[in-house]
Specification:
With about 500 residues, the protein is an alpha/beta fold. The protein is about 40% helix and about 20% strand. The chain folds into two domains: about 5-265 and about 470-494, 3-Layer(aba) Sandwich (Aldehyde Dehydrogenase, Chain A, domain 1); about 270-460, 3-Layer(aba) Sandwich (Aldehyde Dehydrogenase, Chain A, domain 2). Strands 14-17-18-13-12-19-20 form a seven-stranded mixed sheet, with helices on both faces. Strands 9-8-7-10-11 form a five-stranded parallel sheet, sandwiched between helices.
């Protein structure tokens, strides 16, 4: 990753982007478009087609045809495997292009995007390529004279709705296992970050994915997302995003065809630091990036810092110093630690929640200002709040911005109570030198992912999913395939 290489890509013109339906790029039936505005400098990069219900229906029909015709679903697993590997190859060839394109679209700092977006996406397609020919059926332990066979079959049409913060990474988490299982897909990217996924779709075609197997409909959630959620011929809906939208999708399923709905929703993840943490300096450094990377726009961000009272002041001082030293600016500058906030709308939300926290009695230790390292862009300095009380909004609701809420605790019991004191259950962190305590905390904290003496970084081999109001189902690992498969029993009298 060299600055001169990035600079050569950052100003390339971007053409208008259409919809991908049945292997063909085409405009929305209405002719309507949406502007793509970069959070880096407020400049309009291009426009994308604004799909409506008619376009979504055409995309779903194309996906259904491809599935029923068997061009992918009945393709030999070894052949599907080859194509998925070729997709990964093409992502790697276009690694720099995809990374820079994504940063121009959503403002993630390039150092993080380089690894988390095309790097992760390529690895995900390779992982599920290797899973294709390892999904086996079962023979049941039946009485003599009978044979019970359990088949694992592709479900049909998968609708995938992907957020703006890590579109390639999260998109791959959904597209790759759905394809590996033999399904056809209709993808709805966020209208705030569609460009890298549109480019991925073309790379999939170039790699030999048959027309209609992957379709992409860009547009708003209210139009394209709603139409996809309510479509009677979508078998599965998989979504990453906010809780309120997740509830709307569940309602849409109930009011349509009872399609399966898998939700990876928000979090207010606790990061718990005990006095016996092996290295408080390292814990502070990792904890800072656990909330401030990508301007806090990470679903598993450790946004609640719980620190044992005996080390609270020392630890918060360390963290304050780290936060105030982080470089915020042009996300395509490799020297920056933090890039842009994704949109003016998100920046306004960050500021509003920070202001209410201060009104309720929290203390601002550092940061929280709207800054302008690049004219026209959306930037915010990382904020550290202490004096936070458990009942405050800032301690209970997801900001999805660079705002850290710090609270002290006395002992392990109080740490567990505070950690579990929200409606969420996505991720958590525990810092301790005691193996016994680590195991107790992993069991006690209600979360789908618990880090111990680290924060962030689990790879594709382990599942990611939440409990409580952080959602259901899992992305990543072999377990993700279960979402996209049906079980069929054959009971045979011999």
């Amino acid at each position: 990753m060299k600055q001169e290489h990035i600079d050569a890509l950052r100003h390339l013109p971007i053409a208008h982007q259409g919809l991908l339906i049945d292997g063909q790029w085409q405009p929305a039936a209405s002719g309507q478009t949406l502007p793509v505005v970069s959070p880096i400098d407020g400049q309009t990069l291009c426009s994308i087609a604004a799909a409506g219900a008619v376009d979504v229906d055409r995309a779903v029909q194309a996906a259904r045809r491809s599935f029923e015709q068997g061009v992918w679903s009945r393709m030999a697993p070894t052949e599907r495997k080859k194509i998925l590997h070729r997709i990964a190859d093409r992502i790697e060839v276009h690694h720099a292009e995809l990374a820079v394109l994504g940063v121009r679209d959503n403002g993630t700092e390039i150092a993080m995007a380089w690894k988390a977006e095309p790097g992760s996406a390529a690895g995900t397609f390779r992982y599920y390529a290797e899973c294709v020919d390892k999904v086996n059926g079962e023979i049941a332990p039946t009485p003599e004279g009978t044979l019970g066979l359990i088949h694992k079959e592709a479900v049909g049409v998968v609708g995938a709705i992907v957020p703006w913060n890590f579109p390639l990474m999260i998109g791959a988490w959904k597209i790759a296992p759905a394809l590996a299982a033999g399904n056809s897909v209709v993808l709805k990217p966020s209208e705030d970050a569609s460009l890298s996924l549109l480019r991925l779709a073309q790379l999939c075609l170039d790699a030999g994915l048959p027309p209609g197997v992957l379709n992409v409909v860009t547009g708003t959630g209210a139009e394209a997302g709603e139409a996809l959620a309510r479509h009677m011929d979508v078998d599965i809906l998989t979504f990453t995003g906010s809780g309120p939208v997740g509830r709307m999708l569940l309602k849409a399923s109930a009011e349509s065809n009872l399609k399966r709905v898998y939700l990876e929703l928000g979090g207010k993840s606790p990061n718990v630091v005990f006095e016996d943490a092996p290295d408080l300096a390292q814990a502070a450094k990792v904890s800072a990036m656990g909330i401030f990377r990508n301007s806090g726009q990470v679903c598993v961000a450790g946004s609640r810092l719980l620190v044992q009272r005996s080390v609270h002041d020392e630890f918060v001082d360390r963290l304050q110093n780290i936060a105030s030293s982080l470089r915020v600016g042009d996300p395509l500058d490799v020297t920056m630690d933090i890039g842009a906030v994704s949109s003016a709308r998100q920046l306004a939300r960050n500021q509003s929640m920070l202001a209410r926290a201060l009104e309720q009695g929290a203390r601002l230790r550092t940061g929280g200002q709207v800054i302008a390292p690049v004219p026209g862009g959306q930037y915010m300095s990382p904020a550290v709040l202490d004096g936070v009380q458990p009942e405050m909004e800032i301690a209970r609701q997801e900001v999805f911005g660079p705002v850290l809420a710090v609270m002290p605790f006395e002992d392990e019991a109080e740490a567990v109570r505070l950690a579990n004191g929200t409606e969420y259950g996505l991720a958590a962190g525990v810092w301790t030198g005691s193996l016994s305590r680590a195991h107790r905390m992993v069991r006690a904290i209600k979360a789908g992912l618990v880090h111990v003496n680290t924060y962030g970084g689990p790879d594709i081999t382990v599942p990611l999913g939440g409990v409580r109001q952080s959602g259901n189902g899992h992305d990543k690992s072999m377990h993700a395939l279960d979402k996209y498969l049906d079980l069929k029993t054959a009971w045979i009298q011999l």
